[in-house]
Amino acid sequence: MCKDTSKTITCKAVVLWGVGEALKVEEIQVDPPKSSEVRIKMLCASLCHTDILCCNGLPVPLFPRIPGHEGVGKVESVGEGVKEVKEGDIVMPTYIGECGKCEECRSGKTNLCSTYPLPFNGVMPDGTSRMSIKKKAGAGAEESHRIYHHFTCSTWSEYTVIDANYIVKLPPTIPLPHASFMACGYSTGFGATSKEVLVHKGSSVAVFGLGAVGLGVIEGARIRGAGRIIGVDINENKRKKGEVVGMTDFINPRKSSSSTDSDDHKPKISEMVKELTGGMGVDYCFECTGVASLVNEAIESTKMVRT
Fold it and tell me: Is 232 within 8 Å of 209 (Cβ atoms)?
């Protein structure tokens, strides 16, 4: 008997109702996929700093909304015309599409496809949403409210619908939690060193922040042949994680300064980096924390002949 995939699915999702409000696990409805769309059962989802910005109403305050743009899942059903994937395939949502034919895709200089751009309006390409939530109205009646997508994804839901041009098929043997980080954070860092900056062989690299982005930077630098990779983080547990992917040195600013040092006399991170590099600084420095005050520190950590 054929499985009926034309029905709306009721499931749980994390819903945000407004800036400053607490995230709530709600029961929502997810419509079946339309033409060129797929409905995905999410298996893993992770948290990115961009999701925090979404909860703060950035870049556009659209509510109610389901955050999440990192994750991995299994295709539950496909809409008309979808040939790239089939039911049961393991896929990773990507909030940026790629047609491979437009000027931007062919340039080799940008991943911002003009055919399948990064959407900020919270809806599918046809201007509608595939997610809704029922809330009680007057006299015991219920009203259905549209829920906005986060970019193309909304991975913090048990099920989500995505345009097929914004997903990547993965091998079924890949560890799912690892694949989730590849959807944004890790691949952002890895691409920075391996595809954008093109770190040269034997060079020195400093990485501020060893989260998913920072660890991606380290592995990209290692693959490019960097001779020295300095990781910087205030979490001592990140030392081992960094070493696994190629970090050669670790700086914990809180442990590297004495508790008796005043704020005016505590060594700067850039000074610690230069101490490890003979006073010169590194060839490349990547700031991966999003902390504004560290931008100048990153610049001051690099050699004067580098930018």
Answer: yes
Q: Which amino acid appears at position 146 of this protein?
A: R
pLDDT tens string 58-115: 989 999 999 999 999 999 999 999 999 999 999 999 988 989 899 999 998 888 899 9
Q: What would the two tokens of residue 114 be?
A: 């003009």
Amino acid identity at 51: D
- The whole-angstrom separation of Cα 173 and Cα 285 is 34
Amino acid at 244: V
Tell me 77's DSSP state. E
The pair of structure tokens assigned to 264 is 């005016």
Closest C-alpha among 306, 229, 242, 233 to residue 269:
233
Burial of 140 (0-12, 13-18, 19+ CB in 10 A): exposed
Q: 3-class SS at 215? A: helix
Q: Which helix (H) or strand (E) holds 223?
A: helix 212-223
Q: Which two tokens stand for residue 58?
A: 């950035």
Which residues, including other chains, have CB under 8 Å from residue 291's CB and lie 6 or more apart? Answer: 209
For 38, 51, 69, 78, 119, the CA distances from 18, given in Å and listed in that order, are 28, 14, 18, 32, 20
Contact 40, 74 (CB under 8 A): yes
